[in-house]
Design a protein that fits this description.
By secondary structure, the protein is mainly alpha-helical. The chain has 3 helices and no strands. The longest helix is centred in the middle third of the chain and has 16 residues. About 10% of the residues are buried. The N terminus is likely disordered.
């Protein structure tokens, strides 16, 4: 019976940073994936062609910079209508 090989799912792991929520990770990775789809260059050398996989790895390694906006800053963003 052949041995079962384990797959490395490191590219799918979510950071254990208590300051960072899963939702924030997903939103930042999704926005980065859109940038990659639009022609942005990856910040890492990678063998993957999938923008989502590349984006998740970049976010997991802390290579994607973002800032948290206050409610007042969000209200000032054009097109943002706030919670409904």
């Amino acid at each position: 019976m052949p041995e079962k090989t384990l797959r490395n799912n490191a590219h799918c792991s979510i950071p254990d940073d208590p300051e960072q929520s899963i939702n924030r990770f997903i939103i930042v990775a999704a926005k980065r994936a859109r940038q990659l789809q639009s022609g942005a260059r990856p910040a890492l050398p990678t063998s993957s062609k999938k923008p989502t996989v590349i984006a998740m790895e970049e976010v997991r390694r802390g290579l994607v910079k973002y800032e948290l906006l206050t409610k007042e800053q969000m209200d000032a963003v054009p097109g943002h209508h706030g919670p409904e």
